[in-house]
Amino acid sequence: MLALPCWIIAAIAAIATIGHTALHCNATVIYLTGEEIIYETGIISHQKVSVPLHMITDTKLDRELIDKLLGTATIRINTSGGKDYEIVANFEFDDLNELYNEIYRLIRKTPTSMPDAEAKK
């Protein structure tokens, strides 16, 4: 007799969890413009963080065991003057690895990111 209410509560919790995950995944983006990284998250409570590339002091790409199993990773981006990471985002590993490499290329000004005249010097 008590089993039916427990199943109903479990079903509601499962639906709420799936709904929250779907909304969160669709409402969280990170992208690189020419001069900054933008991280946006949230539907009801929207947050947007903008980090200029010239202010970045370090970036970190983390993959723990669970991340490897899920095919995800966490990127951490820090700027000068901040005591903690300004951006901490978890996405698919391939997407973050590509973003991480591009950020590294841009902030280190490797030859592929320099104008041809500067790269030849």
Description:
By secondary structure, this protein is an alpha+beta fold. The chain has a domain at 30-111: Roll (PH-domain like), CATH 2.30.29. It is 41% helix and 31% strand. Strands 1-2-3 form a 3-stranded antiparallel sheet. A 3-stranded antiparallel sheet has the order 4-5-6. It is elongated, with a radius of gyration of 20 Å. The N and C termini lie far apart (81 Å).
**What's the architecture of the domain at 30-111 in CATH terms?**
Roll
SS class: alpha+beta
**Number of β-strand runs:** 6
Number of helices: 4
Oligomer: single chain
**CATH class call of the domain at 30-111:** Mainly Beta
List keywords for this structure.
121 residues, PH-domain like, three-stranded antiparallel beta sheet, 4 helices, elongated
What would you say about this model in short?
The protein is an alpha+beta fold and 121 residues long. It has helices at residues 3-26, 65-70, 93-108, 116-119; strands at residues 29-32, 36-41, 47-52, 56-62, 72-79, 87-92.
